[in-house]
Amino acid sequence: MELVGDKEQEAILDSLQEWFEENPKFPNKIDRVLLTRFFFCMHKDEEKTKKLLETNYTIRLANPYIFTKRDPTDQDSKNTIAIADIVPLPGLTKENYRIVVHRLTNPDANLMHHAEDTKTYIMLNDCRFSLPDAIVDGAPVLSAGDVHISDMSCHSMAHMRRMSLRILRTMLKFVQEAYPVRIKAIHMVNCPSYMNNILAFLRPFVSKRVFELMHFHTSGIESLYEFIPQDMLPEEYGGTAGKLEDFKAQFLEKVMEKRDYLMDPQYWELEKA
Question: What Pfam families does its record include (predicted)?
Answer without folding.
Answer: CRAL_TRIO (PF00650)
